[in-house]
Design brief:
Elements: E1 5-15, E2 18-28, E3 38-40, E4 48-50, E5 67-72, E6 77-82, E7 85-91, E8 94-95, E9 104-107, E10 110-113, E11 117-118, E12 125-126, E13 138-144, E14 149-153, E15 164-166, E16 170-171, H1 174-183, E17 189-193
Length: about 190
């Protein structure tokens, strides 16, 4: 007389830190020459996932959405980018001959609303709100030698925008520099190209 014992068994495998379990009914029957060898009576069923260790998610590539500015001196425009997407572009005035705007990569180091202007030659100050203040209502500084600064600012001379007219600064229409002021922060990259 033969006896068969049927029970559910599990085979476990560890793959990439996760445990996979195979389930199958196993039939045990005595064999004369072997001690109780298990034989699978059916094909193995499908693999089921046992969440003993949560799977590691695939790395996500997040697009760079850091704002950055690119100033083109030749086209006299500044473009605002988010990653590689150009969001806006504004007309600008750049440094005139002998006072050229420096080229290279810089970062925003100073931001002021209603800035006071200090004449670099005389040291005389002109308070914010004064119609003679050449900075307008917003200042975004990105270059300094320790004494002098270069940055974006508004201007009471709207006709100079689009020209090489400044002492190195980037003049903008007042409404444009106000909009730009809302889009950037300290540390924003400013790239100046010829």
């Amino acid at each position: 007389m033969r006896k068969y014992l049927s029970k559910r068994s599990y085979l476990f495998f560890v793959v990439a830190g996760s445990v996979l379990a195979l389930t199958a009914p196993l039939i045990f029957k005595p064999k004369p020459s072997l001690d109780r060898v298990a034989e699978v009576s059916k094909p193995l069923p499908s693999i089921s996932f046992s969440p003993t260790t949560p799977p590691t998610p695939a790395p996500q590539i997040v697009p760079d959405s850091t704002p950055r500015l690119v100033i083109s001196l030749s086209s006299r425009r500044v473009a605002l980018y988010s990653g590689n997407t150009r969001l806006k572009s504004y007309p600008i005035a750049v440094g005139r001959e002998g006072w050229e705007t420096p080229t290279g990569e810089f970062k925003v180091m100073d931001m002021q609303q209603n800035p006071t202007w200090i004449n670099p030659f005389t040291g005389k100050t002109i308070a914010s709100g004064d119609p003679k203040n050449p900075l307008g209502s917003y200042w975004i500084g990105f270059w300094t030698d320790g004494n002098n600064w270069i940055g974006f600012h508004g201007t009471p001379e709207a006709g100079s925008v689009g020209q090489a007219a400044s002492h190195g600064c980037i003049r903008m229409y007042n409404r444009d520099v106000e909009a730009l002021f809302q889009e950037v922060s300290l540390g924003t990259v400013v790239r100046v190209v010829p």
